[in-house]
């Protein structure tokens, strides 16, 4: 979905879902990129010829037998759309101190701006609101802990700044289309 924004601009009637690996609608199939295209092809084989054929193809090309098209676990985090010297240091600090109880007001204070001015600058620089960005950063940090450790969900939630394992699960499923447990099972270092 590298050109998602361009596609939205050129074709406003088309709904672009950048959180999916691939999408199938009627006879139109699209994918996030070349690797996701392989996932899409395996899914087409699964639908047309069944799971045994899809598993055989997946083994032959050394791919997981099935990754749900709604999964977003391999998509990179968006970076700032425009460089912004006031916002950049705040982004860096929040990432380094992700465990802290960051709020939009606190981030605005770090940038020496009013909350409203900060939100305006933040959206101009990143293309998303600070609350959404913060939740996405916390999920990214949780993904790293999920694949590298066997820490319980409560510990991971606390380590990345979520108030509870329930909050972690909610934000994780919203952004990754998997539960943290499913993500760990599929991607942890074994």
TrEMBL record:
InterPro entries, A to Z: AraC_XylS_family_regulators, Class_I_gatase-like, Homeodomain-like_sf, HTH_AraC, HTH_AraC-typ_CS
Q: Which GO terms describe its molecular function?
A: DNA-binding transcription factor activity; sequence-specific DNA binding
> Locate the HTH araC/xylS-type domain: which residues?
88-186
Entry keyword annotation includes DNA-binding:
yes
Q: What keywords are annotated for this sequence in UniProt?
A: DNA-binding, Transcription, Transcription regulation
Gene3D superfamilies in alphabetical order:
3.40.50.880, Homeodomain-like (1.10.10.60)
A single Pfam family it belongs to is: HTH_18
Q: What is this protein called?
A: Helix-turn-helix domain-containing protein
